[in-house]
Amino acid sequence: METCNCHVDRVVRHSETRPPGPLRSPKMKVEHLSDCVDMTVDVHAQKPPGSNILERAQAGLPFEVLSHFFFKCLPDDGFPTTSIKEAPMVLGRVCSYWREVALATHVLWAALSVRTSVRRPDLCIQEWIGRSGQSALSYRVSFYFKNDRVMDAVNMILPHWRRWKHIEGHLLADQWENVVSAIAEGTPLLGHLQISTDHDHTGTIQLSSALFLQFLKTTSWKHNVLGLDACGSSLRHLSVCAADWSQCWPYLVHCPNLEIFRITIRLLRQRCLPWQGGIRF
After folding, report:
1. Structural domain of residue 26, as residue ranges?
2. Are 76 and 29 in contact (CB under 8 A)?
3. Tens digit of each residue's pLDDT (9 = 90 or more) over 137-194
4. Same domain assignment for residues 117 and 236
5. Where are the alpha helices (DSSP H) in the chain?
6. What is the pTM of this model?
């Protein structure tokens, strides 16, 4: 038993070493994973190098180690998609054992980039949520038109607002209002909010329940941000639009720990003020 624990520890440490630059693509990551599994199971199961890798994985590779490998296959930048050629979907198409491990690794399904090209995005979201267990949820949604398919997708995300961790993308005004209303109801896990909408839309973003928000970006000077007294101390990156410079002061007062502050003044070029260690006067 002691030997097995040491072996698993070596495997985890080895998997934390990222492959070189050319192997950072999703396809190369999966191939790199297969190489790691091949090498690991050879030592763990003590079977000849010529044995079938899938049989050896089922026989000797611990669930926790394979699950850890799977997590490393997720994209470094951006969110997973429903493509069967990318992780996590491709991992379940190798064999029944890999599929079982992938489905039981809830964190693999906790983030999703929703594509408009998908015929039924609402069903994809529903399946993803079902596989995510109780993990915090992250979504990238960009819908520039209104139809039943888009509305169904947004409506599938809305009931889980208390589990939102990262919300990013573009929505039409009605959909944007629904998301903002859900945030006002209470999103205790929300750390990243970057949802744009029609530039002529006037609305209010209430953040009093987003106590751990670290990243906020608005794209319209007609959006009024409230509740900064509750979440301002946690904000590190803030990008907002304003009608004039006088609207900058409330952000600076309520957000003392900002590292990056970007403000776009109407009819003026963007001003970027990067700070380190809080506000400097």
Report:
1. 1-107
2. no
3. 999 998 888 888 889 999 999 999 999 999 999 999 999 999 999 999 999 999 999 9
4. yes
5. 2-15, 26-45, 53-60, 63-72, 96-104, 121-131, 148-157, 173-185, 228-231, 248-254
6. 0.76
